[in-house]
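Hey,

The postdoc asked me to send both predictions to you directly instead of through the lab channel. I've kept everything plain text so nothing gets mangled by the mail client. Protein one:
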Amino acid sequence: YYEESLAISREVGDRAGEGTTLNNIGQSYINQGQYENASEFLQQALEISQEIGSFASEGVTLNEIGRISQNQGNYEDSLKYYKQALEVYKSIGNPAWVAVALNNIGAVYRAQGNYSEAMRYYEESLAISHEVGDRAGEEVTLHNIAGIYRNQDQKDLALEYYEASLSIIRELGRKASAIPTLSSIASLYREREDYDLALTYYQEALALSREVQLPDREGSILSNIGSIYDDQNQDEQALKYYQQALAVSQALGDRSIEGFRIYLIGTVYVELARYSEALETLQQAFSIMKELGEEN
């Protein structure tokens, strides 16, 4: 479809349509992890948007090129493109996109471990989102700020911002978005050894993952719940949840995760003194890890 659209745009001399299609093709390649192909099409789209003076398209394309660099760990290039996008969005007076660009820049600084710079951009993004009433943008930034506090082991502040993020998610009715936030809160409570609260948040996340049909999330949460019971030496409960998590990974065909979850089950069998089952299970896990070259 995109190739046909591109050919038609070029045939009739529709430069704006050509640029839009090139951008769409580039984004499609990004989603497939084909960054070189994506970059090729996006650079063409960027040239066209600059040629015809389409600032909105230019900002979007700069942002996407920045995303490629970020995904490849090329943070300096990523910052260059994100900051160019930021200036474009400021020039056309689009505060919502300014907030997005600020958030993206903050994410790169966070990935570099430069938390003070990341926080500076996140806070500016948060202020703009709040001012223009962009609750979804506000929620994303609150979640990102919570992540910085977590990186710095400031658990109380991390929980405060995760809860603020979760409050907006509930307000907006975004069930899928609630799952990672609930899981982040649960894991912080687990680190504090407040297992009852951790389980409360994980159970809510588990119910939502099943409701919106996200089996990869469901499997991860089941495994985390199993680990909480494992931490408390509640071996039968741990085994129950690890086995459910294993069934999910097997249904998804994820051999690497399957091997790890079989290993976890094997360790519980050891704790239960069910040694023959433990040996068989751990050998099975090792066989999968060897098959995948993950013995270490």
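Protein two:
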Amino acid sequence: VLQNGETVMNVDIVGETPKQPGVVRTWSSSFFPLLSSDGQPMGIGIIVIETTERGGAEQPLQASEEKFRQVAEKIQEVFWLTDVENQEVIYVSPAYERIWGRSCDSVYANPTSFIEAIHSDDQQYARDIMADAAVPTTAEYRVLCPDGNLRWVCDRSFPIFNEAGHLIRQAGLTQDITAQKQAATQLQDLTERLGLAVQSANMGIWEWDLVAHHLCWDERMFTLYNLCAADVSLSEDLWRSVVHPEDLPVADAMLQKALTGEADYQLEFRVIWPDGTRSETDGFDARRKVLLSR
């Protein structure tokens, strides 16, 4: 589950419990991944149903259901369980009311009401993703709350089959990812503003991996050095070949100070263009990003 992010269903487990040694019991367990905002597995969710055939099972079953509710009602995500054949919602955790802004009773009464609350631009996409209940799905969409606020959610579902292999239920976790989406939007805005600022200031952006000896330039850097990206291979030697020889010792000394933390890498130097002419390139202010291997 952690390696591949895949759901593992209906694993039969046989054993004893510390409270009842010598009494053999059986359980059916299903395991599903809990994913982070970037889609990577960060934990495992488990549903365990005891299948031991014995008399007097009503009381243990009630206790098991109570423990399940205690867990489901504390988590921040919406846990939901549906009856596929009867198209009924068996359970939805209280987090639904916080994220959807609607009561749990409303979705019990009308199982499709949660879809109707999805933003109109996302409804068809969500319906298409949810169309096949027999396969695990992941969908991100917006929910329009009654107060007019929009919430982004990540909805993950997985199927539950009986012993005969027939699909009987569908379970899932729905996570509020509004904060992550807002942060991503803000980052995109900042990136675009930085691009405009760099372009207006006639600046280039570069990164030098001193361990792998790999140099990375943006398009503006090639313009500043009057080079064509398709004609050259970026390297430390390339950069040294275009810096005026009289300025190289100062550049090397400044680099060593930057590496030892004595000073930021800020240098004014001259560049010799491929046609032999010279360009005064000043105002370079950069901090080295050193990648260290262990």
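Summary for protein two, as requested: The chain has nine helices and twelve strands.

Thanks,
C.
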